[in-house]
């Protein structure tokens, strides 16, 4: 059938041309494709723009802040995740969109086959998923080649083939679930369960084909050509089966009477009884007055009916998370459950607050009946808010029980405040979901876009909150929750009027910006009131201080070409199991290391030396020598390990005072080695009773020679003045190097490295404005000044007020507070030194003096 436009008729009457333009109408299948494409366009657009935005954000953060913030795996995760999200949410959006627009009821009145409708949705879903996959791969290749690793391969066949296969299976499961279940959220949950089942059966089937045992734990070998063809044929048959199931379910769904659900009619009946009386046949007088529900009760009842399954699902998730925290101590399982499952449940609760009214187009229906927008807002929010708060309180109670029963954590005031922070954070996520549910007209699009927007908002919010003390975070979180609650209240009457698009988006984004502004003002205010005073004069004096020339005689015979190997740097390595150690080889290593002059740590590693220093006859079986090794041999190796430890410690202190070694080497090598050596010498003296019997026990062949060797080892312990000078000089040198790094990494530079002190960063990795850097540098000035003062005036005793003051000063320097440490094996936190070790060394010197005097 053809039609001639008005302009063509005018041109024909004017003699412009004699042949009229003829335009054919599109076919039915093409019209269905166009309609489905318009339904999928919002989610497809969000996916395309979100993909570009996320890849650009990750690439720019990596380029600006370095690979510590955005690792290479983040780009691969985006490349895998984004196309699969489209495959998960697009089928539900397409078919639930038919319910929202009432187009499926309209299609039932047209003489068309259900196969055309199912084929149209399949083709649009496949085309949208393929375009997103190609678009994501393009951005992954660009960001990978330009910003990340230019010389490494980007995408290989072994990576793209499983992604395509998994995406097609996920798309098929999504179409089956969308035709089977009417509610989009339930369809997405069913899709997730189906793809898990398909993945498990596929893995078991492939393992059975290649290994012969589906439950074998052996690695899967590379398939042969025949096995690979068989896997491809089975996959093709599986996809064909999914197409057939979609066709059958589409026929069942398409031939139904209507997709209208009952809650709309139940609500209409309740409201009509209030406004227009009861149906004819019974008079109003026949009903008692208290039997007529009020508008508030009707709205609450209807909201509970339509969102009850979501609230039950959220409660089940909360019970599962709480059970995980109570029954397991796996930090990874606890982190995923509390960091992903509970926020997802809270976000889903928020999205469902107004989803029923969107889905059933009740806004005009409720507005025309004169129901107050405030009443609608409160009755829609009240059941969801009650469940959200109950979930938060239950998890906080579980966390309180876990911390109370733990042996390592005791309940105190900061923990109690952290419970309030958790409740506020979860409530904030719920209100953000409510706002996003009002912004988007379709629920599947809101489900797809809301996690991205919430993560971006919280990414900025946590960057602002991470520098705040735990006691004040709750002060600034509550106003943000109030801002989002106010946003939902202000948007409700506008949505009742039928407004959508930029009007709703603009106001919603402005409210989100206000909430972010509250956090920014709070963090800025907290930064100003907690910023320590500057000490420019003292800092200038310290930067101009030069190290004194102590001379080589102060530290004995040391070669200037001393080389410190990385093998002696202690990174909390495990103790070497002595039951599996070759004693002859260990003795050979000790002898060679004692004879070495130019290098330290060349023949033996630090963990072996520490194992010998800490050896005890009462230790566990794995840390004990075999019974064939006699006691004299063990003591001989212990004395050699003590000599090596003191040799290394003296070398490090020589480098710290003469060669300007780093503070990190002093704290991680010299200090722990001296402490372990002193402990080993103390145990040796106690075992031989040198304090009461200066000549030593008569249990060895040459007790006097052994006692002399013990006394000589004690004399090798650095003096208190030598330790004080090395600590002071290394601390000053590290401070000067730190400020040189700050001068090179000026804030005006685009790419700045993280300022490190003694090998640890003193600021967070996200500090583009430099607020944390300024505060950390001033706290560092105070900590260094206090430490130098304690080194000059005398070291404090453990757990005294001066010692606690030093600990607190260094805690403010490093991010993480109580969890941040340097010098982990020194016995003290941070570069804080006490007089307790000096007293132990003094006792050993008295014993050694007595031994040498008696000799």
From TrEMBL:
Q: Any coiled-coil ranges, and where?
A: none
Q: Which UniProt keywords apply?
A: Membrane, Transmembrane, Transmembrane helix
Q: Which residues cross the membrane?
A: 43-65, 77-95, 116-140, 160-181, 188-210, 230-250, 307-327, 333-354, 384-404, 416-436, 443-465, 471-489, 509-529
- Please state what the protein is called: ABC-2 family transporter protein
| Source organism of the structure | Neorhodopirellula pilleata
Q: What is the lineage of its organism?
A: Bacteria, Pseudomonadati, Planctomycetota, Planctomycetia, Pirellulales
């Amino acid at each position: 059938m053809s039609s001639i436009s008005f302009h063509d008729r005018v041109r024909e009457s004017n003699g412009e041309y004699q042949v009229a333009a003829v335009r054919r109408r599109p076919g039915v299948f093409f019209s269905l494709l166009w309609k489905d494409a318009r339904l999928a366009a919002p989610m497809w657009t969000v996916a395309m723009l979100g993909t570009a935005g996320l890849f650009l954000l990750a690439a720019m953060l990596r380029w600006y802040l370095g690979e510590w913030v955005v690792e290479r795996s983040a780009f691969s995760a985006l490349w895998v995740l984004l196309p699969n999200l489209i495959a998960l949410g697009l089928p539900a959006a397409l078919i639930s969109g038919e319910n929202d627009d009432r187009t499926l009821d309209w299609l039932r009145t047209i003489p068309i086959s259900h196969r055309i409708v199912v084929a149209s949705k399949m083709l649009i879903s496949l085309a949208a998923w393929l375009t997103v996959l190609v678009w994501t791969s393009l951005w992954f290749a660009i960001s990978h080649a330009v910003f990340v690793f230019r010389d490494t391969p980007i995408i290989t066949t072994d990576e793209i083939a499983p992604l395509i296969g998994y995406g097609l299976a996920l798309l098929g499961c999504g179409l089956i679930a969308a035709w089977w279940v009417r509610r989009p959220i339930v369809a997405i949950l069913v899709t997730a369960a189906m793809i898990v089942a398909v993945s498990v059966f596929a893995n078991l089937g492939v393992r059975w084909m290649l290994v012969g045992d589906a439950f074998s734990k052996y690695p899967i070998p590379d398939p042969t050509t025949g096995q690979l063809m068989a896997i491809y044929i089975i996959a093709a048959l599986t996809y064909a089966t999914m197409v057939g199931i979609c066709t059958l379910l589409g026929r069942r769904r398409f031939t139904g009477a209507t997709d209208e659900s009952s809650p709309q009619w139940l609500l209409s009946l309740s409201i009509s009884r209030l406004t227009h009386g009861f149906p004819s046949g019974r008079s109003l007088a026949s009903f008692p007055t208290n039997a007529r529900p009020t508008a508030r009760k009707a709205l609450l009842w209807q909201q509970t009916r339509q969102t009850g399954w979501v609230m039950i699902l959220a409660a089940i998730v909360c019970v599962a998370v709480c059970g995980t925290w109570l029954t397991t101590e796996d930090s990874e399982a606890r982190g995923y459950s509390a960091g992903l499952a509970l926020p997802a449940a809270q976000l889903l609760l928020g999205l469902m607050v107004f989803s029923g009214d969107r889905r059933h187009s009740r806004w005009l229906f409720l507005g025309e009946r004169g129901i107050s927008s405030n009443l609608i807002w409160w009755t829609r929010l009240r059941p969801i808010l009650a469940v959200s708060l109950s979930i938060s309180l239950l998890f906080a109670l579980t966390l309180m029980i876990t911390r109370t029963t733990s042996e390592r954590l005791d309940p105190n005031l900061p923990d109690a405040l952290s419970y309030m922070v958790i409740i506020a954070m979860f409530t904030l996520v719920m209100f953000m979901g409510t706002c996003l549910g009002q912004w988007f007209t379709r629920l599947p699009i809101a489900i797809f876009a809301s996690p991205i927007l919430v993560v971006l908002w919280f990414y900025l919010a946590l960057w602002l909150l991470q520098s705040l003390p735990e006691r004040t975070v709750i002060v600034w979180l509550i106003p943000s929750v109030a801002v989002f609650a106010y946003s939902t209240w202000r948007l409700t009457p506008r949505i009742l009027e039928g407004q959508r698009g930029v009007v709703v988006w603009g106001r919603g984004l402005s409210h989100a910006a206000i909430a972010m502004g509250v956090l920014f003002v709070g963090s800025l205010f907290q930064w100003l009131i907690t910023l320590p005073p500057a000490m420019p004069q003292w800092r200038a004096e310290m930067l101009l201080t030069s190290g004194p020339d102590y001379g080589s005689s102060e530290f004995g015979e040391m070669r200037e070409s001393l080389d410190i190997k990385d093998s002696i740097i202690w990174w909390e390595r495990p103790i070497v199991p002595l039951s599996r150690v070759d004693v002859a080889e260990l003795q050979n290593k000790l002898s060679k290391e004692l004879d070495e002059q130019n290098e330290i740590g060349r023949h033996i590693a630090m963990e072996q030396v520490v194992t010998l220093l800490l050896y005890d006859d009462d230790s566990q079986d794995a840390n004990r020598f075999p019974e064939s090794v006699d006691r004299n041999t063990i003591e001989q190796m212990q004395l050699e390990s003590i000599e090596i430890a003191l040799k290394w410690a003296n070398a490090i202190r020589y480098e710290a005072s003469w060669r300007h070694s780093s503070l990190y080497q002093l704290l991680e090598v010299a200090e722990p080695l001296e402490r372990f050596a002193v402990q080993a010498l103390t145990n040796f003296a106690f075992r031989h009773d040198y304090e009461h019997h200066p000549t030593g026990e008569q249990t060895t062949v040459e007790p006097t020679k052994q006692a002399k060797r013990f006394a000589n080892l004690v004399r090798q312990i650095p003096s208190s003045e030598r330790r004080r000078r090395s600590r002071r000089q290394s601390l000053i040198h590290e401070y000067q190097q730190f400020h040189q790094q700050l001068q090179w990494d000026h804030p005006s530079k685009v790419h700045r490295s993280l300022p490190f002190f003694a090998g640890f960063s003193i600021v967070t990795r996200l500090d583009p404005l430099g607020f944390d850097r300024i505060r950390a540098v001033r706290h560092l000035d105070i900590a260094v000044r206090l430490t130098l003062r304690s080194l000059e005036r005398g070291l404090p005793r453990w757990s005294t007020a001066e010692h606690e003051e030093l600990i607190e000063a260094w805690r403010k320097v490093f991010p993480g507070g109580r969890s941040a440490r340097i010098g982990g094996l020194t016995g003290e936190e941070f570069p804080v030194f006490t007089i307790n070790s000096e007293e132990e060394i003094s006792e050993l010197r008295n014993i050694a003096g007595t031994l040498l005097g008696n000799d």
